[in-house]
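Async update (no meeting this week)

Hi team, since we skipped the sync, here's where things stand on the single-chain job. The sequence we agreed to prioritize is pasted below, unchanged from the tracker. I ran it this morning and attached the output directly underneath so nobody has to dig for it. Comments welcome in thread, and please keep replies under the output.
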Amino acid sequence: MVDCKPKSTPLEAKMKMTSNTTPLDDPSYFRGLVGSLQYLTLTRPDISYSVNFVSQFMNSPTIVHLQMAHHWAGCPATRHSTTGYCIYLGGNLISWCAKKQPTVSRSSTEAKYKAMANTAAKLTWLTFLLQDLRISLPSLPLLYCDNLSALHMTINPVFHARIKHIELNYHYVRE
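Output:
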């Protein structure tokens, strides 16, 4: 992988799962690569879902699976977005998640908004847990998102027709 080119995302957007089902001659390279990536997830939780997805093919990997491992995997077949978050208490990571969303989103804004709702629910639960443990927080938790459209949806109290398809329980973020 000396000549590899870095990618901004672990998912290749147009990769097809059925494009080449030729089994690998020697699957040991694939297994070693995926094992190394699994070890890497200890410090890089953002790639956990992708690495765990590609590790499902350890038994009989194909050329496509190797290409996915070189890209850190992905699931273009189902079109489900991947939700991921990290929760810090001070400078310490106390909770993280990377998983496939249960529904298909119509846009990246909707996917990010659903992820924000899940994270907000987790933050609320952790806040109550810390209160039960008598640990006071110096300030309210902050929720960061890298999608401006999703952030604007949380600020704007007007319910637009373009976002009607987002279920009401996801408006938990706004509250």
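Quick observations from my side:
Strands lie at 82-89, 92-100.
The mean pLDDT is 75.
Reply here if anything looks off.
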